[in-house]
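S2.1 Query sequence (DUF3311 domain-containing protein)
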Amino acid sequence: MVTPVRVVIAVCLVAPFVAMLWVGSYAKVDPAFIGIPFFYWYQMLWVVISTALTMVAYQLWQRDQRARKAEQVRGGAGR
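Output structure tokens follow.
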């Protein structure tokens, strides 16, 4: 079942792949950051961003699963 929460989870998990596979967007030297070419610091920034997005996706998934279990319990109790 596709829900808005699951769409957000999918976006959180797919975004890092799209960012890293679209090499043409970051295959350059400038702007350098503390002497590090853009190509390298952009990729390292995505390590941190990917971690944060994965954590968000996990938290949303856990919340979604708890809500589904609570809904099943409520649905089963009314029978």
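Residues 9-55 form one domain. Residues 69 and 75 are 10 Å apart (CA to CA).
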